[in-house]
Here is the input.
Amino acid sequence: MNLLTLGHSPDPDDAFMFFALAEGKIPTGRWRFEHILQDIQTLNERATRGELHISAISIHAYAHVADKYALLPCGASMGDGYGPMLIVRRGKALPDLSDFGAIRDWLGHQRIAVPGKMTSAFLALKLFLYTEPMHVVVPFDKIFSFIEEGNADVGLIIHEGQLTYARDGFDLVLDLGAWWKTETGYPLPLGGNVIRKDIAPADRSEINRILFESIRYGLDHRAAGVAHAMPLARDMDETLADKFIGMYVNDYTLDYGDTGRAAIREFLGRGEQLGFVPPLGELEFVE
Here is the structure.
């Protein structure tokens, strides 16, 4: 028996993805998994040190850990025409929201609360602006209150905030996933699963098949998977949690496919051209 550490975020989409694994719904052969739930910024930082065998990770962060980890072809979170959002407190004066240039100019004078410097949301923001904005790092679930207290002008929100911001009294400035789709025609690659390269290639492939079956089981038993994820559905009822899970656990999650792989190359390639990420070379996916 071999025990593997498996890091993922305490969010309903990740919980749904690993529901079958956590509840013993699928065979895992000689492998056992220790689930470690931590926020994505912490998992990104741990990946830079190669601490976990398998981990959810921001695609942005992968550029910094490609020497230690290979990308698993399953487990992707892709925003196909939607994604991280820039929001403000309702009633704040805004630029012409139909003009990307006007939004860029306006954001250049705002202090932005961001959920982590290694998140894909932050790289997407820098790609939109062509520069690093004036910002402060705030835990993703504290961004709304941080703005309400007057500590930042704009929030870069991820996770369930994308569905609850209007209810909580905020207005949308820009959906970076929608901008990216307009800009490139690709879905925005946000997160993925990685596995350490010191695990033998044949074992990586075997482990990938187990994770694939966990995701497929959840998609095939959706109601049970959503119920399993509900304890982690912050401020969401079951209907809203199901909608959120559907946004980020879908066909791309089973396999990136050619489109998903091209989207990652475009995303990190643009980051490399602008000096936001180190040179990456060819992406390594587990076969």
User: Anything to note?
Assistant: Residues 85-184 form a domain with the D-Maltodextrin-Binding Protein; domain 2 fold (CATH 3.40.190.10). The mean pLDDT is 94. Residues 93 and 106 are 10 Å apart (CA to CA). The radius of gyration is 18 Å.
